[in-house]
């Protein structure tokens, strides 16, 4: 469903993504683990067309961002192609970014109404279903500040789902939460995975990666150093650096 092909990106002389290639099948839960600064967030931002890259391409079904050869020059993708691509991808990041002056329901219907042109009535009905799905059926009219961090993050998941994305990206969605709130958010992510959503999950929750992940990629210094099924990567890591990383995070 998604093909990342030879994507590289530098900030100045810092090569943050170094020839990254990755395939994600429909319905797959693909976890990405690795030390801080290894390029995980940058890769997700590329996958969401939030940032550009210096070479390579990313293909999602029939949508593509990346460089096209025109004679001897490489032509980059356009802003319109990026917007088209981004519309198919949902992102939930570490820091909740709900609109603070709008209710939970208004947050969830904003994208469908403003971007997709869905009628308000249809969007409200869909939002009610989504809020029930993330366990917030009774919070439609609450403001984000009235919710716990875990509830806010679940509302953010509902808001991303309201755009009917082909794939959901999670960037350490639980790492800013108090420990007692982590499980409720991981539970929603697990339910989403069981429902067949295609997901790319950057996480420090190794149990989640091992139990819910189908495949796990290990990043280090901008490269994918190990990539395989969750059980292979966790029980039979091939690289010493993976072994070291897992030891530090067990
Ligand atoms: P991770 O999510 O694995 O911790 P990041 O993708 O956030 O890693 O960062 C990878 C590298 O890119 C780090 O060295 C970081 O300092 C650098 N970096 C990330 N964003 C920027 C930016 N906007 N400008 C300059 N350097 C950046
Ligand atoms: Mg990060």
TrEMBL record:
Keywords: ATP-binding, Nucleotide-binding, Transport. This is Arginine ABC transporter ATP-binding protein. It comes from Devosia epidermidihirudinis. InterPro entries: AAA+_ATPase (IPR003593), ABC_ATPase_HisP-typ (IPR030679), ABC_transporter-like_ATP-bd (IPR003439), ABC_transporter-like_CS (IPR017871), MetN_ABC_transporter-like (IPR050086), P-loop_NTPase (IPR027417). It comes from the Bacteria. Residues 2-246 form the ABC transporter domain. Belongs to the ABC transporter superfamily. Gene3D superfamilies: P-loop containing nucleotide triphosphate hydrolases (3.40.50.300). PANTHER family: AMINO ACID IMPORT ATP-BINDING PROTEIN, PHOSPHONATES IMPORT ATP-BINDING PROTEIN PHNC. GO terms for molecular function: ABC-type amino acid transporter activity; ATP binding; ATP hydrolysis activity.
């Amino acid at each position: 469903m998604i093909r990342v092909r030879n994507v590289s990106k530098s900030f100045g002389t810092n090569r943050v993504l170094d020839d990254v290639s990755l395939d994600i099948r429909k319905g797959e839960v693909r976890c990405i683990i690795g030390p801080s600064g290894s390029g995980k967030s940058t890769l997700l931002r590329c996958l969401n067309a939030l940032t550009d890259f210096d070479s390579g391409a990313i293909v999602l079904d029939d949508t593509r961002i990346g460089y096209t050869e025109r004679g001897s020059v490489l032509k980059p993708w356009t802003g319109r192609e990026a917007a088209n691509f981004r519309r198919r991808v949902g992102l939930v990041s570490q820091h909740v970014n709900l609109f603070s002056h709008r209710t939970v329901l208004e947050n969830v219907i904003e994208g469908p109404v403003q971007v997709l042109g869905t009628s308000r009535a249809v969007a409200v009905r869909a939002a009610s279903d989504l809020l029930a799905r993330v366990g917030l059926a009774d919070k439609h009219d609450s403001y984000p500040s009235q919710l716990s961090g875990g509830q806010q993050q679940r509302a953010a998941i509902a808001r991303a789902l309201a755009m009917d994305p082909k794939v959901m990206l999670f960037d350490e969605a639980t790492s800013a939460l108090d420990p007692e709130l982590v499980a409720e958010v991981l539970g929603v992510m697990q339910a989403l995975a069981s429902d067949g959503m295609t997901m790319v999950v950057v996480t420090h929750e190794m149990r989640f990666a091992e139990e819910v992940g189908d495949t796990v990629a290990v990043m280090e210094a901008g490269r994918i150093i190990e990539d395989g099924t969750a059980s292979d990567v966790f029980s039979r890591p091939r690289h010493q650096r993976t072994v070291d990383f897992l030891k530090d995070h067990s």
